[in-house]
Amino acid sequence: MDRSPRPALPEPTTAGSAAATQVSRRRFRTLNLALFLPLLATVGALLVARQAQSWGQAAVLGLGIVAALVAFERWTAGDVARVAVPCLAVAAGTWPFGLLVVDSRNQGAFYAIAVVGSLVVSQLPRHRGPAASGLVVYVAAVGLIGLLTQSPADADGVIEYVILPTGFTAIVTGLMFPNKRFYDVVADLEEARERDAELAVMRERMRFAGDLHDIQGHTLHVVKLKIALARKLIHSDPERAEQELGEMYALVGDTIAQTRELAYGQRRLNLAAELENAKNLLEAAGAQVRVDSEGDAGAPADDLLAQVLRETTTNILRHSRATLVHIAICEHSISVVNDGAIDDVLPELRGLATLGHRVSDEGGELTVQLEGGRFRTAATFPAPTSAAQPATAGEARR
């Protein structure tokens, strides 16, 4: 019995994980920009138009709106720290300008500092609480100075200059903290999913390594014993030694053929066993698997359909973030449909391309489609005709 250690496995690649993470961030950014950037720009433009009394004042107040939009755009890209200082400086300056220079009630010059400040403070690595308090205090202090410069200072002035700006800033800043936590949770879930997918791929590699070990490990052990025997017999029994060498030669040749079959997916597989393995791998990666089986395929269809299922399972784990996989098996066909395609362009799938030629050689057809975020792989073999059986019998009689 061969007790040599199993081969060590290579470390899982992180290229697929990094690609999936980048795709998720890009989708979140696109969603935020499409939903909120027009809203922020529209509200800012209306506030400037309502408050400014000249084109010069509109230009200065507009700088604050531009700073808010730039900060938001960088925030969606996770890079708000790069523009934090200039945007905060501009936004912080437009608030007292609108209050002390423009000198009009029902104004919204605090809008820029509230937006920029909330975006920057929520992304600070530490001391977010004190920073948020400082932002609110600044807005309140400027509002109080503006109120004291007005004559007379009444209750409406307190609301418009102090309570409204301070409350708005505090609410927006407070809402950004659970918002950031939400994105952190989504990122953690995405990373966990990617780790599960990598573990599933490692399980597949382990199975491949086990098959390779089963093929070569036993052969190498037997060859070692036969070499030792041939060395002892080479002088005392040359014919027996030559026989042992011939057996070693045949054994090594058979092992090379089996290794080639394993490497190129030409080894005979069992469809039922492959289906169970695919189901376990996909469920381990977090996907829900539904299997519809209406019959058993016959050789060579069973072997080729099993190879298509194995290769498709590997592609799902590497090229998608599938949450639902539907496997349908009929007597002469298999269809695998999964959601969560990472890209809108069909990736290069060399394994399936190679299998496609083998399926075609057996009279079948392999199709691969990507549409609406769903990836579909299907292999179909023609059903044997009843007329073929008598012909075969006739040929056997001849």
Strand-helix topology:
Blueprint: H1 15-51, H2 55-76, H3 84-102, H4 110-122, H5 128-149, H6 155-236, H7 238-263, H8 271-284, E1 288-293, H9 301-319, E2 324-329, E3 333-338, H10 350-361, E4 365-371, E5 374-380, H11 388-397
Parallel strand pairs: 1-2
Antiparallel strand pairs: 2-3, 3-5, 4-5
Helix pairs in contact: 1-2, 1-6, 2-3, 2-4, 3-4, 3-5, 4-5, 4-6, 5-6, 6-7, 8-9, 9-10
What distinguishing features does this structure have?
5-stranded mixed β-sheet; 2 domains; Heat Shock Protein 90; disordered N terminus; alpha+beta; 398 residues; disordered C terminus; 69% helix
Count every beta strand, where a strand is a DSSP E run of 2 or more residues.
Answer: 5
Q: Uncertain runs with pLDDT below 50, 5 residues or more?
A: 1-17, 386-398
Strand content: 5-15%
- Tell me, briefly, the overall form: elongated
Number of helices: 11
- Percentage of helical residues? 55-70%
Please tell me the total number of domains: 2
Give the rounded overall mean pLDDT.
78
| Cα-based radius of gyration, to the nearest Å | 35 Å
Largest beta-sheet characterization? 5 strands, mixed
Structural class: alpha+beta
Strand arrangement, largest sheet? 1-2-3-5-4
| N-to-C CA distance | 48 Å
What's the SSE pattern? Answer: HHHHHHHHEHEEHEEH
